[in-house]
Design a protein that fits this description.
The complex is a heterodimer of chains A (251) and B (382).
Chain A lengths: L9 E10 L2 E11 L4 E6 L5 H8 L7 E6 L2 E2 L4 H7 E4 L11 H11 L4 H15 L14 H12 L6 E5 L7 H16 L3 E6 L2 H4 L4 E6 L2 E6 L1 H7 L5 H9 L8
Parallel strand pairs in A: 3-8, 3-9, 6-7, 7-8
Antiparallel strand pairs in A: 1-2, 1-4, 4-5, 9-10
Chain B lengths: L6 H25 L1 H22 L6 E7 L4 H12 L3 E5 L7 H6 L5 E5 L3 H8 L1 E9 L3 H21 L9 E9 L10 H28 L1 H7 L4 H29 L9 H25 L3 H19 L11 H7 L3 H14 L4 H30 L1
Parallel strand pairs in B: 1-2, 1-3, 4-5
Antiparallel strand pairs in B: 3-4
The chains are: A alpha/beta (251), B alpha/beta (382).
């Protein structure tokens, strides 16, 4: 998918984060078009999460610029938060709350009106086939269902961009595939998806992929173009060629 | 962080967010049986436990008498003690050297020594001395026994009819064994109040917030448009409510079960307690900001708060007897000030004029902790 014209969903220019002498993210620049699925790959410690935290307004950049949904990450974090959804690496729903209570809670802190919450919640529960489980505690659901629910909750308030931090950790490829069906559905509604992952089969599902090595973006293109560029037929091989030279991280 | 929303719209939206959040917090608390048990079981158990110690009634306490006089007066005194429902005289002719053995065997709780020539001196001089020995390993019991024995002895002195100047005076000379520097029985209710509120507010709040960090839900909350300060506030509100319920329960128990009336002004007591609860909540929040795991938060709360509360608030050990360094240190423990306030208002019936200094200190501590929280919280987000 090509980036559409004038405004980008995300635009980063020399974005940098330093912790003392350590440069976690080193002047990265990229653009993500609206409705695009943008994969953010990298070994552990490459700087993915730090970069994403800056874009979400959780962490202040040490240098550089970035705009998310048209808002400045330094000065307009409040506006950014209103326009993004977020699903964390760790499972981000409350296990001791029921499916319904979780949805109500997250919709509530996004300030959605009650009527809308009720209508949309019933729709969602129907769509996910959780009718029988609606009043059961989330802790009892299988992991795959939890993750689908977590994603649905992250986009419940209709954000323009959703950030997914390693959303499918620990589930099998079949469930991962089902999860991605939900992501495609969201992009169909115009939501931009920014996803970090270290599953390389997932990289194939993205429109474009950036690969971070030691805080820098080492490569950025469509999966097909990257494979061509590195003369191989799998993202695995692309990733290993790039990551081999990494000086930090434990992967 | 700047906001771009007009002021008018923020109020209701934030109220809605807060309401959703507080509701969710109540789900957490009410579904966690263990927490619930600690929350409401602990104050009840502690009040009853300490109350039982307090109301430890002396009944048929076994006592030995060393009667060195063996005269009419000593006979009468012993009979009077034996006749009371509080004491049973086990033996009345124990040699002084055997008293310690009798105590060690746990057989008796007290001993009375009547000096030789008891009646003669009483008649001639109008006064005499007896010695009471008690087992002071049990402080409260020892105190109670002493006061009961004193009452019986002075009763006898008033009633006794011999020749010579009347009424007689018999001065009981007190010796508490094994714990000679014993002080008056501490009144536990104010201490229990300080301790329970401390535990609930500091530890539970800290753990509840840190739990969100551990679970990863804190990130999700911080990415939401809900203001971080509002997140923290929403986490604290349920514990404020629960603490107030606890407070009322403790007061109700102490009034009904322990017969400990609230002498002072009830609204004043509740107001001061709410201030202390706020101090504790702020402290709990501070701990939650600087710690990363539930264990660390719990540890910090226990070491940082519970121990000082028990040791330095004056509730278990009198502060005046401590080394100067500890006396100085005790001043930074919020419960020390609260303990004084509760004692003054509840037991002595003092008004605000007597406790304004303590109130000011607590208020100052709360503000200080609050500012510290805000600063630390900002640093974490940067």
């Amino acid at each position: 998918m090509s980036t559409t014209g004038t405004t980008y969903a995300i635009q980063a220019e020399g974005l940098t984060k330093r912790f003392g002498a350590f440069i976690a993210v080193n002047a990265i620049s990229f653009q993500v078009g609206q409705g695009e699925i943008f994969g953010f790959l990298g070994a552990n410690g490459a700087g993915k999460t730090t970069a994403m935290r800056m874009l979400c307004g959780l962490s202040r950049p040490s240098a550089g610029q970035a705009r998310v949904a048209g808002f400045d990450v330094r000065t307009q974090t409040e506006d950014i938060k209103r326009n993004i959804g977020y699903m964390s690496q760790k499972f981000s729903l409350y296990e001791d709350l029921t499916v319904t209570e979780n949805i109500d809670f997250f919709a509530g802190i996004y300030g959605l009106p009650k009527e809308r919450i009720r209508r949309q919640r019933d729709e969602l529960i129907g769509k996910l086939g959780l009718g029988k489980e609606a009043d059961k505690l989330v802790g009892g659901l299988p992991l795959g269902w939890k993750q689908k629910l977590a994603f649905s909750v992250a986009v419940f308030h209709g954000p323009r961009i959703v950030f997914l931090d390693e959303p499918t950790g620990g589930v099998d490829p079949v469930t991962r595939r089902q999860f991605w069906d939900l992501i495609y559905e969201a992009t169909g509604q115009g939501i931009t998806v920014f996803v970090t992952t270290h599953y390389l089969d997932e990289a194939e599902y993205c429109d474009r992929v950036s690969i971070m090595v030691d805080g820098r973006i080492a490569a950025l293109d469509t999966p097909a173009a990257l494979k061509k560029q590195f003369g191989t037929d799998s993202m695995d091989a692309v990733f290993y060629q790039l990551a081999r030279g990494a000086k930090r991280g434990d992967a | 962080m700047k906001t771009h929303t007009p002021q008018g719209r923020r109020g209701p939206a934030q109220a809605g967010q807060l309401l959703s959040f507080v509701r969710k917090e109540f789900y957490h608390v009410l579904r966690d049986r263990k927490t619930l048990l600690i929350l409401f079981g602990m104050p009840v158990v502690q009040v009853l436990l300490f109350g039982f110690v307090l109301s430890n009634e002396v009944k048929d306490t076994r006592i030995v008498v060393v009667d060195q006089a063996k005269d009419e007066a000593s006979r009468q005194l012993i009979d009077k003690i034996d006749a009371s429902r509080y004491f049973t005289v086990v033996r009345d002719q124990v040699p002084p050297s055997r008293i310690t053995d009798a105590f060690r065997s746990g057989d008796i709780k007290a001993a009375l020594v009547i000096p030789s020539g008891f009646e003669r001196k009483l008649v001639r001089e109008g006064s005499n001395t007896v010695q009471i020995l008690t087992d002071a390993t049990d402080i409260n019991l020892s105190n109670t026994i002493e006061s009961y024995l004193r009452a019986i002895i002075s009763d006898y002195a008033r009633e006794a009819r011999f020749t010579g100047p009347m009424p007689y005076a018999i001065v009981p000379e007190m010796r508490m064994l094994y714990n000679p520097e014993l002080r008056g029985a501490p009144n536990f209710v104010p201490g229990v109040m300080a301790m329970v509120l401390m535990l609930v507010c500091v530890m539970m709040t800290a753990v509840a917030i840190v739990k969100e960090k551990e679970l990863g839900t804190m990130e999700v909350l911080l990415v939401s448009p809900m203001k971080p300060a509002l997140v923290i506030l929403a986490k604290a509100i349920p514990y404020l409510l629960l603490s107030v319920i606890n407070l009322l329960a403790i007061l109700a128990l102490s009034v009904t079960v322990l017969d400990l009336p609230i002498r002072g002004n009830l609204p004043l007591l509740l107001g001061e307690s709410t201030l202390f609860i706020t101090t504790c909540l702020t402290l709990g929040i501070l701990i939650s900001i600087v710690t990363e795991s539930q264990q660390a938060a719990m540890f910090a709360s226990l070491i940082g708060m519970l121990l000082p509360t028990v040791i330095l608030s004056g509730f278990m050990f009198p502060i005046e007897d401590m080394p100067v360094a500890l006396q100085v240190l005790a001043n930074v423990v919020p419960s020390k000030w609260y303990y004084t306030i509760v004692k003054d208002v509840m037991i002595k019936g003092a008004g605000f004029s007597a406790i304004w200094r303590e109130t000011a200190v607590l208020l100052g501590m709360t503000l200080f902790l609050f500012v510290l929280c805000l600063r630390k919280f900002k640093i974490r987000l940067a």
